[in-house]
């Protein structure tokens, strides 16, 4: 079962533009990179796929750096006569430094050839093997776990998908979409887990998928750990990380272990290179450009909500009436919002910022800061109407911003508000959690939809 992924739109954009460069697809293991590229290959007149884990496919790449000769050898050996638009897919490219180096020559000497490369643990192996892609000669694209929209399409929820795509979503449909979003957050966005759930409608069967995924991630550690000690810490941290989501973490004794800050920081950064976790550092800036403050404690976001649910043992909570933004002390809502925001762009990998003010007797922490058309948008993930917006109001008073977003388990509204100190009037846009991936679209269409939003 090959799902229609949002990234196909970005791949089509790359395919149709002039002066395309070789494309490097980055993403964690098992998010569907190979499947996506092979499906995309069907849109070309000729598609050639090599797996550079296999010695028979690596032999085409030598140190002579002649792209035309290498391509001729590939076509001859694979018995392919290229016609029309041709896509060459180099899978597991981290196994051939020569293939990595050759990408620049494909760009310079064979500009009509389309080349996409991908690899398991690509970020980690680049560091370990000192592999570097030719600067300015390649483009990057990122694949993340499936989004809510992709989940709806995969599950053939055609009516829900059509309503989700409207701006604004019809009010009567909000409870149904919220229920589907809660199911999506339970299952997560790993393609194999989604496939198993769609076919079985049984979350207990999906647990075997999660278990195997965690096993594969732990087994991978041996490929990039430098020694047994490093291997041990990485294994422990893969198991500990899902239980630390949404928290401001310290490296010292991370996950109730005895590891010191230096070792823990190195291990967590390796897991970030493997794209299993994201360390979301805060900013203290009040205006653009925002800079991350790596001296302050980051928040931890895990690869996928479904993996978090399995690891933390909270799947049963989804069978209750507990609102999503109240589950796991609100941390699951922040995890899935971060996951949706991260997947919003295929051409960059920027874990969303959060804002902090840490002063004696005056602390504040804002969940997310977005930038739209050079304007900063503060975003809070809050539980119910009674959820405090203290940090949001603090940020508004300090920046005089006139627009803010609340993501919650309620409906859609736009209301004129003023901070408790009475200093700053602003517009508060409230959106259901399931619209986390469409926040910027709603803001772009705010003027057009303003009348409808105010009537909702």
Structural write-up:
- The protein is 41% helix and 18% strand.
- Helix 9 packs across helix 14, helix 11 (203-224) runs antiparallel to helix 12 (228-240) and helix 11 (203-224) packs across helix 14 (305-312).
- It has 456 residues and is α/β, with parallel strands linked by helices.
- Strands 7-9-10-11-12-14-13 form a seven-stranded mixed beta sheet. A five-stranded parallel beta sheet has the order 2-3-4-1-5, sandwiched between helices. A two-stranded antiparallel sheet has the order 6-8.
- It has 18 helices and 14 strands.
Number of helices: 18
**Which regions have little confidence, pLDDT < 50, spanning 5+ residues?**
none
Query: What percentage of amino acids are in beta strands?
Result: 15-25%
The spatial strand order of the largest sheet comes to 7-9-10-11-12-14-13
Question: What is the strand tally?
Answer: 14
Please compute the radius of gyration using only Cα atoms. Answer: 23 Å
End-to-end Cα distance, whole Å, is 39 Å
Given the helix and strand composition, which structural class is it?
A: alpha/beta
| Helical percentage | 40-55%
Most strands sheet: 7 strands, mixed
